Fold each of these.
Amino acid sequence: HAEARYRAIVDTAVDAIVVIDRVGTLHGFNRAAERIFGYAAEEVMGRNVSMLMPDPDRSAHDGYLKRYHRTGERRIIGIGREVTGQRKDGSVFPLELSVAEWKADGEVRFTGIVRDITARKTAEEALLAAK
Ligand code: HEM
């Protein structure tokens, strides 16, 4: 069954998989997202994705979505970006974000894949400091 296969893939993914609608309301939060951000899925469903990031992006993210709907200009979708996330305990961490857009029954949805790159960043900084 396609739905069961889809769930198995999403639940076993190492990266966080987060689904939002056109205004940023959370509709999907896989197991890895629970581990990486420290929230249970039921705590975040129906809330704004901006809760997963610190300011200034937290206050600006609704505007980023509006700008995209107005202009159609992609700045992260299909490109990716290193940004900063915020966990439930308030700690911040570097992440690599990829975003894809799709439609469910005519409704716009965005799926974000979030990779915690704390280890990679620490290694990069250690290499730079050793130079
Ligand atoms: C746009 C930050 C998570 C969907 C943006 C932009 C920033 C940003 C800075 C604007 C880029 C620009 O205008 O130059 C963040 C941060 C996140 C995060 C810090 C940390 C958790 C997500 C997630 C999704 C998402 C999980 C989807 C599920 C979008 C979309 C846009 C956007 C659809 C507008 C389209 C685009 O610019 O290509 N975000 N975001 N974001 N973000 Fe996020």
Amino acid sequence: MGGRDATMVLLDENGIRCDGRKVDEPRRIMIKAGGLKNADGSAYIEFGDNKILVGVFGPRDVHPKHMSNTDTGILRVRYHMEPFSVGERKNPAPSRREIEISKVIKEALEPAVMLEKFPRTAVDVFIEVLQADGGTRCAALSAASVALADAGIPMRDMVAACAAGKVADTIVLDVNNEEDQAGQADMPIGYMPSLEKITLLQLDGVLTPEEYKKCVQVGVDGCKIVYDIQKKALQDKYFGNGAD
Ligand code: ADP
């Protein structure tokens, strides 16, 4: 944030961004439902150069038992970046950032998952970031929703996620790593499109009230694009040729 690389052209005179995209264009998104045979549900996402694998286990007994809730099930999320997922080796121990992102993703998924149907149990979501390139929390959240659906966990809606941001004084969809570093604002959004409810909204940077509203709208529109790809991933696995 905060214009660290002043020499980079983030938006040229034709409105084209540093990676060749238009302002309202997301990176390439590919989602595959399933793939891990030892998990109850799983999904793999490529979101630009982000590559993330998610495994879901449960509903299952809670250990340690005192963490269970007699009224409802609980959701546990672990977001982890592989040491090789970024240019410089990352320490494999959980960082403050990974602990924060695990909490944020858990809280973004909770409104969607019908945990009240499974008292005393836990649903565990393991997120492995294999390659990171800005926007991993949104990509991971979108893949986690597909993995939960793949596990057959009843849900009110899937959470689709995408960031919007401010780059070169312009509101853009899906901020990449360079834009995140050198841009003016980054706003990750998680959204349940059928219920029209936002479950995640963070903001790193400064926006005017008008820019804030525009950013939310652009981000929500991005979530709707992701939602269609999530649904297609499940359709491909359960009704298409790609069943496994
Ligand atoms: P998000 O991945 O959700 O955008 P951040 O804004 O915290 O979350 O991180 C932006 C990007 O910075 C990450 O996607 C990743 O590419 C990079 N990054 C994060 N942690 C590290 C790290 N320890 N070393 C190198 N790059 C990192």
